[in-house]
Amino acid sequence: MTTLGVTRATLLKDLRMEWRSKDAINSMLFFALLIVVIFSFAFNPTAEESRHIAGGLIWVSFLFAAVVALNQTWARELRNQVLDAYRVSPAPPNALFLAKAFGNFLFVVILECLMTPLFVVFYELRSVGPVWQLVVVALLGTWALVVNGTFFAALSIRTRSREIMLPLILFPISIPALLGMVDATTSILTGDASPNFWIKLLAVYDIVFTMICLLLFEAVLNAE
Amino acid sequence: MKFFGRFAAIRGISASFAPGRLYVILGDNGAGKSTLLRVVAGLMEPSQGSFTLLGAKRIRDVAHRVGYMGHAPLLYDELSGMENLRYFAGLYGIHDDEVGRNAMRMVGLDPELSRRVGQYSQGMRQRLSLARAVLHDPELMLLDEPFSNVDVRSAREMAAVLGRVRDQGKTIFVVTHQAALMEGVADEFVHMTAGQITAREELARNLTSTDSATGLAQ
To answer: What pTM, to 2 d.p., does this model score?
Structure first.
C-alpha cells in the first residue's frame, strides 16, 4: 500500500483500459493531425520561416491535443462512481494523482513521437541546434502541461461544464511554461540564442507546480 | 448534522451501534439513509457534530477496516471481474489473487469469467460490487442498496451471504427498501424519517414471516 506500489498499479490499470478503448490516444492524434495539416496549407511556410514559427505551432498543437486527453483523465473514475471506491480505501491520494499524471505524460509523449515526423515533413524542419536539447525541452514542457492539466481536470470534475472549465483554468496558468517551451524550441531550431534560460525556467516551473499539486490534491479529491 | 445548502439531510442523530450485528436501515426516499452511510464511510464530512468509528475519530485511520458498497457499482466497465478485484485489493495492500477469487466465489461468481464488467448483467455487477466491498475482510461493512435491480433469488442468496459474514463477527449496515429479504438475517431494523432515526427495532433471527417484514419496511 505504498505510494509507489499504488501509483504503479493505477498506472498499469489506466494503460490497460486505454489500450482497450484507445479513447484518449485516438482523439489526441486526430486533433493534432488536423492542426498540423491545416496550418501547413494555410501558411505554406518556407524551411526558414518554419524554423521561426515551428516552436509556437508545435506546442500550441500539443497543448490543444493534450486538453482533449486531460478531459478524459477522470471520466473513467466518475463512471460508476469508481472514485468513491478509491476514496474509502486507505490508499494514498497522491498515488492516484501521480498515476494519472504519469499516464497523461506517457500519452502526450507518444503523441509527440508520432507527430514529430509529420512536422518534419510538412514544415521541412531541420534543427540548427543540438537535437538532444529538443528532447529535454519536450520532456520538461510535456510534464508542465500534464501536471497542471491533471490537477485542474480533477478540480473541475464536479462542475457541470468541465470541458470548458479545464482550458479556462489551465491555459492562463500554463503561459509561463508555454513561453519557455516555445522560446526554447525556437532557439534550438534556429540556433540564434541559447535555450538554457528557458530550460531552467521550465525545470523550476515543473518542480514548483508538481509540489503544489501534490500538496493540494487530497483536498481536491475529497471536496464535496 | 449534514446540510446540503439549507436542506438538512441528517439532523440530530445521536446513536451508538454494537459490533458484530447486522443493522438494516429503512426509510422513504430522501430520509437520509444513503447520506448517513456516506458520512460514516468518510465520503462526506458532517456539517455539525462528530462520531467515532471503530474507536477512531479520523475515518482514514480505520479505512482498511471498513468496506463500502455504494448505490453505483464502483467498478470499471472496461476490466474483467478479477482485474477489478485485483486492482482494488492492491489498494488495501493485498497482492494475492486467491483473495479475489475467494471473494468472487463467495458471491456466486466464477473467477475465471473473462467477460468485461460492462457486459455483466445488473445482478452480476451487484454481486461483484459486494465482492469488492468484502475483499479485504473488513470489520465494518456499509452497504447502500445492495439488492437494487437484483432478482429475488440472487437477492436472497446475497442476504444469506451477509448473514454468514455477520456470523463471523462483522458489523454490517444495509440500506435497503427490501426489508423482507433481511427478515431472519438482520439483528435490528433502524427506521429513518426526514434525516432522523425515529425507531430501532430488535429482531429475532431466522424469522420467516415476510408479511410482517413488508409491513415494517413501509
So the answer is: 0.88
